[in-house]
């Protein structure tokens, strides 16, 4: 077993440092904000309204995403067509897409001057408005429908192909297959899918900031931002942060209890051509989702290209700041994930759970807590970009850790005893045995962290000087100033940079990798 193998000695000190850092970033910063608060009063009616809206919109977004993903995943599981691989790649794009870019694309399609409203006006109808709770939910479905589709598709592909071959030989209709094979799988997969998306939507900030607001469309994260930015009420911010931490912690623990099934028995991994169900309905489901996902991105490209040559130097400077913050965040994420995963090999899986604490924490509370802990020694404005880098790394750590830990345990299972017998330990073991075989998950994790950091609109909104804004903040400022031509050009730059960074890191991890 991997637990008997002695991991490299560097893991203890480095992993312990990461554990301490994560505890400071999550629980420590929350305590610092509460400590600095002059008083901590009970939450007001509007605060509880924000809590209710957060839970309500997260539940509705999760259910809609999962329900809409079912026919798409089913169609992808039983149809082979030209461009299927490209569509699956597109299904992964929204997760690394900068939120503010997606919001701008959705505005171009569904806003009052978007193509949908223009078509409605041409038909003699009233234009639609994307602002408010329905806009928040629309954006969350846009981001999470692809994720739900991929997760449910994995459930469909986990059904052994021999089951479908047997169903064909028994003369099963499409309804029979759904009853005996597909619905049992969905009953196991769907709760976990809904729970994961619910957790993601609970911590929403940029979507609510751009499309929500007001007493009827304020999330907990947006209420924390308002408490910091406008009222400087640290007590309310700390209490809201604690409420959010408790909600997310309960959801995270519940999601761990709901696991995706490993399969419905063993099979020979053969591909069985399927011809059950309606090809028309499958094609319609795939076409609708493809248009829904591609249209906002196409509008960003179409409206952004003409303004690229007129971008101001401040936007280009903001893009450069975002790039180095993203690269630094990616490097920090990889180092933290590797150190924590190595420590988990020695001390057990419970240590790894510390890496997921940031899922339940508010980035705004983390950033504010860090400023409170350091403002006596340095100007907070000077710390805006470094703190943003650290917070982004903490927020990306769970995803990188999830990709790295299983691969690391497998490498130790396969090569650990041999490395120990050869006397390899410390840096030599890390360099010769582990890193060459972990390049794929490390590259993917770094790319994901860089893309997420590149599009982050969180801590930087609180403390950045206008002259030191990142590209997402500069883009948001352009949108609020109604300088839409420049905004679309900046959004295109942000989109290209985010996807490029992800591709470079992910590709770098796959070049000459052993596995």
From TrEMBL:
GO BP terms in the entry: transmembrane transport
- Asked if the keyword Oxidoreductase belongs to this entry, the reply reads no
Q: Which UniProt keywords apply?
A: Cell membrane, Membrane, Transmembrane, Transmembrane helix, Transport
The listed locations are: Cell membrane
Domain ABC transmembrane type-1: residue ranges: 51-255, 319-505
Query: In this record, what's one Pfam family?
Result: BPD_transp_1
- What stretches pass through the bilayer? 12-35, 55-73, 85-110, 130-153, 189-211, 237-260, 280-302, 322-345, 354-375, 381-401, 442-464, 484-505
Return the CDD domains for the record.
Answer: TM_PBP2
Major localization class: membrane
What's its membrane topology? Multi-pass membrane protein
Q: Which GO terms describe its cellular component?
A: plasma membrane
Q: Which family does it belong to?
A: Belongs to the binding-protein-dependent transport system permease family.
Protein name per its UniProtKB record? Thiamin ABC transporter, transmembrane component
Q: Which species is the source of this protein?
A: Litoreibacter arenae DSM 19593
Q: What is the lineage of its organism?
A: Bacteria, Pseudomonadati, Pseudomonadota, Alphaproteobacteria, Rhodobacterales
